[in-house]
Amino acid sequence: MYTSQILGTGHFVPDQIYTNQYMTTLFDTSDEWITERTGIKERRIANPKENEFPSTMALQAAKMAIKNAKIDKEEIEIILLSSTMSDYHFPNTATLLQDLLGMKNKCACIDLNAACTGWLYSLVMANSLIANGVYKNILVVGSETTSSYNNWMDRSKSVLFGDGCGAIVLSKSNNENSKIHKSILSSDSSKKDDLIMRTGMARSPFFVDSKSMDIVEMNGQVVFKSAVKTMASQCASILEQTNTTKEDVDLFIPHQANMRIIEAVARRFEFPKEKVFINVQKYANTSSASIPLALSEAVEAGRLKRGDKLLLTAFGSGLTSGTVLLTY
Ligand code: COA
Asked: What is the whole-number distance in angstroms between the Cα of residue 224 and the centre of ligand 1?
């Protein structure tokens, strides 16, 4: 069995910013309400007129990750891309990304949807492919335009989400320290209706009423409680299973959904807040882009160095969840 390491990281966010102040012009809300309930101050919103879509945002993040990995794009052997809203129903967005990157090697391209946990699921799949010797270099991307399904008349959900992209090159490890130690993936389908988007797919193929409040249906309090409980217990469990202490962990990147969820997870799991990476105030919940985007920013800011132990945990519709412990 081989081990894998994160060789390069990259990210991209659109320039367009919707501040909380701007949200007050759309509906009855306030900066105080949004800040107090979520910690979010602003979110980035893709602009179709600027050609900002999941695939084109992924291009920018992938170029940065490939450059930082110091490999040639043709060395990528498979693209795994997670998204809750693809450019098209088909072909998949990973294929569009291969084309935009100008890759000629005809590598396999797969889209994966596990909602906000999608990128962590992709990371674990990529790690298995490397561990088994199938591939050496894998591009793992999370790219999201939540704005394409956000109802800007619905104050209860639209304030929570934003757009962005993160990417990594995961490669066969060239040193014995860098590796993924353990992963936990799960999905509690008994709560599938607590966060669900039905329109536009086989059971509800036509988007009829653009004023509907129910593009995304969410039982916020159920999602909140499940998120805190599941992420905190998976974090505790993964440390126990690997004989790792909280002191051993250098950086903790939880899914950036909501400051209160992040703080509650850290509190419940008794993890020091100084070692938690937080950027939800700038970007809101970018679904499956949230962890790779935060990871790339953490590397850029010098918060994560080679040899550091990194704990990642995510949560999303499904209700999917996942936790990974790795040495960077
Ligand atoms: N501005 C002002 N008021 C708002 C509002 C907004 N943007 N959105 C909702 N409200 C109102 C509601 O209408 C409700 O009013 P009412 O009591 O008169 O009906 C009131 O605020 C309280 O709503 P409630 O749903 O009880 O608030 P809450 O404390 O549960 O917070 C969330 C709401 C959504 C912030 C919280 O439940 C949450 O963060 N859930 C998790 C969501 C999430 O992260 N989902 C993605 C997971 S991947």
From this structure: 10
Tell which one of 156, 259, 286, 288 to mutate to probe ligand 1, the residue whose CB is within 8 A of the most ligand atoms: 156
pTM for the full predicted model: 0.96
Alpha carbon of 160 to ligand 1 centroid (Å) = 9
Each residue's pLDDT tens digit, 265-324: 999 999 999 999 999 999 999 999 999 999 999 999 999 999 999 999 999 999 999 999
Catalytic residues: 116, 255, 285
* Closest ligand 1 atom number to CA of residue 258: 44
By most ligand atoms within 8 Å of CB, the mutation choice from 37, 188, 262 for ligand 1 is 37
> If you take atom 35 of ligand 1, which residue's CA is the nearest one?
37
Of 313, 207, 308, whose CA–CA distance to 268 is shortest? 313
- The torsion angle over the Cα atoms of residues 307, 60, 80 and 94, rounded to 10 degrees, is -170
Token pair for residue 82? 């997670």
For the stretch 189-248, pLDDT in tens is 999 999 999 888 888 766 555 555 568 889 999 999 999 999 999 999 999 999 999 999
Nearest to 326 by CA among 34, 126, 68, 148: 126
- Closest to 40 (Cα-Cα) out of 142, 155, 151, 118: 155
